[in-house]
Specification:
- With 287 residues, the protein is α/β, with parallel strands linked by helices.
- It folds into two domains: 86 residues, Leucine Dehydrogenase, chain A, domain 1 (Rossmann fold, 3-Layer(aba) Sandwich); 124 residues, NAD(P)-binding Rossmann-like Domain (Rossmann fold).
- The mean pLDDT is 97.
- The relative contact order is 0.17.
- Helix content is 43%, strand content 15%.
- Strands 1-11-8-7-5-6 form a six-stranded parallel sheet. A three-stranded parallel sheet has the order 3-2-4, with helices on both faces.
- The structure holds nicotinamide-adenine-dinucleotide.
- The site of nicotinamide-adenine-dinucleotide (NAD) has 23 residues, from helix 10.
Length: 287
């Protein structure tokens, strides 16, 4: 069997088109474009690429993007003071601080300093809580992007066995919770899981978020399964590769996301969607 390659770039482009339409509508209502403030601390090259991508997407969607690039040695107090200023600024709808942060700064404190209604990354404990209970908060962009991809592709989730490999706060855990919300039967595997191969082999839908190149091999996958590969790994020859052995897996599964061009573009698209939604909700709340 040859798998359907899920085109994340194309799906992300449609989500951004919709976000642009919504942004224009919100702008007409509030008299200015929705606005996203992005803070980056230090010189991590991957973070720089992500922040540039976010800026470009904002421009394409009609969202004002403010960037604050702070030096590596910025103190936690200085960073928190900036976040507080942006958080109080009425002309700013979404605030995010690019992770990871330098070791001397507490990510937890920074995340908690952003009001839940401006937390477009969906990392604040209030938004995490709402994700768990099903309330209306902001969902984290990468896991929300996974669900969006499944919906666009018309892939049934209800009653399906889903195995998530990875339990990080930004991908694995929220992906599992969102799949549960979509009525899948969910198992989460991690670095201490025994019998990983047998568990993954039972899955109708596999979400791989490990951060190890070609960790998931074709023999671990049930024929006909759907595979969403979140991993972004840089190989010694500088090319990018996912957590799944894409070439071999695509011979046996029914649908699979490539790396690059799969899950990656969805994250920024969902951020645009969240930012426009933040502007809309804030406008509604001020009426
Ligand atoms: P992480 O390092 O925080 O978590 C990795 C997880 O993998 C851990 O929960 C760990 O338990 C699990 N793991 C490690 N070794 C394992 C093993 N042998 N067996 C089973 N599980 C094992 O990473 P993360 O932040 O969740 O990111 C995972 C990957 O996704 C990375 O490659 C990252 O670059 C990528 N990522 C992509 C996007 C995107 O596409 N937009 C966003 C975030 C992360």
């Amino acid at each position: 069997m040859s798998a359907k390659i899920i085109d994340g770039k194309a799906i992300a482009a449609r989500i951004k088109e919709n976000a642009a339409k919504d942004a224009a509508e919100v702008a007409r209502a509030i008299g200015r474009k929705p606005c996203l403030a992005v803070v980056i601390v230090g010189e991590d090259p991957a973070s720089r690429v992500y922040v540039n991508n976010k800026k470009k997407a904002c421009e394409a969607c009609g969202i004002t993007s403010l960037e604050y690039a702070l030096p590596e040695q910025t103190s936690q107090e200085e960073l928190l003071a900036l976040i507080d200023r942006l958080d109080r600024d009425d002309a700013v709808d979404g605030v995010l601080c690019q992770l990871p942060l330098p070791a001397h700064i507490s990510e937890e404190k920074v995340i908690e300093a952003i009001s839940p209604d401006k937390d477009v990354d969906g990392f604040h404990p209030v938004n995490v809580g709402k994700m768990v209970t099903g309330g209306e908060g902001f969902l984290p962009c990468t896991p929300a992007g996974l669900i969006e991809m499944l919906k666009y592709e018309g892939i049934e989730t209800a009653g399906k066995r889903c195995v998530v490999i990875g339990r990080s706060n930004i991908v694995g855990k929220p992906a599992a919770l969102l799949m549960l919300r979509e009525n899948a039967t969910v198992t989460v595997c991690h670095s201490r899981t025994n019998g990983l191969k047998e568990i993954v082999r039972e899955a109708d839908i596999v979400i791989a978020a490990v951060g190890r190149p070609k960790f998931v091999t074709a023999d671990m996958l049930k024929p006909g399964a759907v595979v969403l590969d979140v991993g972004i790994n840089r190989l010694p020859d500088r090319t990018l590769c996912g957590d799944v052995d894409f070439a071999a897996a695509s011979e046996t599964v029914s649908a699979i996301t490539p790396v690059p061009g799969g899950v990656g573009p969805m994250t920024v698209a969902m951020l645009m969607k969240n930012t426009v939604e933040a502007a809309r909700r804030r406008a509604r709340a001020s009426l």
